[in-house]
Amino acid sequence: MALYTIGDIHGKFSKLANKLNELPTGAQIICVGDIGLGFPDSRTAECLSDVDQVATERGQQVWLIRGNHDNPDIWQTQREEWNSQLRNIRIARDVDRLKIGNVHAILVGGAISLDRSHPDRLDGHNWWNKEGVQASALEQVERIVDSYGRADILITHAGPIEAKPGPERDTETFEFYQKNDPSLKTDVLAERQLLSDILVASQARTIAFGHYHVPLESNVGPIRYRCCAELEAWEYVKRSVLPPLPAL
């Protein structure tokens, strides 16, 4: 069973539908956040109707995790309502787990916006003050592993602190917003460290994420870090699965 992650959507739902048409029928697909849900033109499940139609016709299951450009209320209080109106698209819990064939995936949503102090960011309209990774996420992941065993892959929106691109790429942004948002750098680094702790707790050897809009893979020891660019589809193959032997 094919498993793909797709990078940030940012409300480009027609492009997401086109991307699903390029992926195999029956595939399991996890969108890594910044779907773009909760903005004035995407406050009801109807905004996903065309995407849902394509997924249904192709027998694909599409899971949506939360990014910083998503209204947390949709994931935390409206999830069942949205899911009842969709067929093959599912709003995941902020901390969730999936068993896809022989793959155990843990999902963790949320991230801090670097431009959260920008005057154009209005709380409840195009920015949400509950956007970050939940403080309880680490404990929830620990409980999942205690109950179901280690994850094969962890899927998040932002990346751990060891992942590339690293925090150093945001130095100019931190300096730009420092005057109006003096705790931004501290908060972002703390969140990336929290995601590192969550990765350790998950015991996964692969983590896929978005947020940084670049297609980039890096390794630190046995851990593979995969950053997905906007609307990029990346196929996850469990490392214990050997490739087929060449034909004789």
From TrEMBL:
Family matches, as Pfam families: Metallophos (PF00149)
**Protein name (Swiss-Prot/TrEMBL):** Metallophosphoesterase
Top-level taxonomic group: Bacteria
Residues in Calcineurin-like phosphoesterase domain copies: 5-215
